[in-house]
Backbone:
């Protein structure tokens, strides 16, 4: 009976060892895919975070037009975030199993437990990505706020902070919508975030 169980165990383990032995030249692929995942979170997933910021009253949280109220894109993007994170975490756990099999005496199967660690890493990466996007849009909005404040002061108008913010929000949204319609949203918002001056038309500079 003991020999039977040993035979069954070997039948399950040996194919996996053969599979891991074939990863000598491709084990690194899941590791480098963290970079594309970061840019996916940054460029495609940020509306999920911005939706929460809009509910909190953040004036800089600009929502792309295709992510309208109750848009199915939110559910699709959330599902893709989960799918990409699971696939990448699973792939990285295979790389860990390969390393254990290659360089240690620890059973390679323990490497697959690292999938939980990589899922946590994906969550951290998502927060870093949307945090970076938030900083960019905050800086862009602050430029528009300074422009609105400057125009108010230069014309000698006495406006409250609420009025200046309302003017800045209206102008900020209008210009970003225009840039979005021309496929230049990221170029425009990055240009706004980087500049330290108040040019008459940043959109013209982008073009």
Residues:
């Amino acid at each position: 009976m003991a020999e039977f169980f040993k035979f069954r165990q070997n039948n399950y383990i040996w194919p996996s060892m053969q599979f891991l032995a074939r990863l000598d030249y491709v084990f690194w692929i899941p590791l480098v895919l963290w970079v594309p995942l970061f840019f996916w979170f940054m460029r495609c997933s940020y509306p999920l975070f911005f939706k929460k910021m809009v509910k909190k009253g953040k004036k800089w949280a600009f929502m792309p037009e295709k992510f309208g109220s109750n848009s199915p894109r939110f559910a699709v993007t959330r599902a893709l975030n989960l799918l990409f994170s699971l696939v990448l975490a699973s792939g990285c756990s295979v790389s860990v199993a390969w390393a254990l099999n290659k360089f240690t005496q620890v059973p390679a199967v323990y490497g697959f437990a690292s999938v939980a660690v990589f899922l946590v890493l994906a969550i951290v990466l998502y927060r870093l990505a949307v945090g970076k996007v938030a900083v960019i849009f905050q800086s862009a909005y602050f430029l528009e706020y300074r422009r609105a404040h400057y125009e108010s002061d230069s014309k000698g108008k006495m406006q409250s902070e609420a009025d200046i913010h309302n003017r800045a929000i209206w102008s900020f949204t209008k210009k970003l919508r225009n840039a979005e319609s021309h496929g230049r949203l990221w170029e425009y918002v990055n240009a706004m975030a980087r500049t330290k001056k108040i040019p008459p038309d940043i959109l013209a500079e982008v073009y």
